[in-house]
Amino acid sequence: CRVxxxxxxxxxxxxxxxxxxxxxxxxxxxxxxxxxxxxxNVVKPKLENTISYIKGELDELEREDFFRLKKIQ
Length: 73
Hints:
By secondary structure, the protein is mostly helical. Helix content is 97%, strand content 0%. It is rod-shaped, with a radius of gyration of 31 Å.
């Protein structure tokens, strides 16, 4: 009976350890999901808008250079 009791205690300790690991992993997953959502919904759109703005400015500069060269010729 004592051996079974010791074995049961060992199993319970292992189970508690696994449960703690599971909870830690669950929190890490939640944190990662929040970061992914922030990147997808905030950072990515801002970067896309910035890229679009820069492309527009570069196109405008290219047009200005083209007309400037046309005037010179």
